């Protein structure tokens, strides 16, 4: 899964199959804002999991 652009933010996921964890780097106007971490099982995180992490960012940061 590639980068996600939403509401002026860019979310760039990366993950390690060996460690079964990943991170999504959040940028706004090309400036790093935050790292969102997650765990997963299998060969790669599901697109649904990535979307849930991104959705959680908006729920927790835009109230």
Question: What distinguishing features does this structure have?
Answer:
alpha+beta, 63 residues
Radius of gyration: 12 Å
The number of domains? 1
Mean pLDDT: 93
Give the DSSP E fraction (strand runs of 2 or more residues).
35-45%
Query: How many helices does DSSP assign?
Result: 1
Provide the low-confidence segments as ranges.
none
With strands numbered from the N-terminus, the spatial order across the biggest sheet is 1-2-3-4
String of helices and strands: EEEEH
Structural class: alpha+beta
Report how far apart the termini are.
Answer: 28 Å
Shape: globular
Largest sheet: 4 strands, antiparallel
> What would you call the quaternary organization?
single chain
- Strand segment count: 4
Query: Helix fraction?
Result: 10-25%
Characterize the structure shown.
The protein is an alpha+beta fold and 63 residues long. The protein has one domain (4-61). 24% of the residues lie in helices and 44% in strands. It has 1 helix and 4 strands, in the order ββββα. It has a 4-stranded antiparallel beta sheet with strand order 1-2-3-4, covered by helices on one side. Strand 1 (4-6) and strand 2 (9-16) form a beta hairpin. It is globular, with a radius of gyration of 12 Å.
């Amino acid at each position: 899964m590639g980068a996600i652009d939403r509401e002026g933010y860019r979310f760039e996921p990366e993950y390690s199959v060996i460690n079964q964890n990943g991170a999504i780097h959040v940028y706004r106007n090309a400036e790093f804002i935050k790292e969102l971490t997650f765990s997963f099982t299998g060969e790669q995180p599901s697109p649904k999991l990535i979307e849930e992490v991104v959705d959680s960012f908006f729920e927790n940061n835009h109230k």
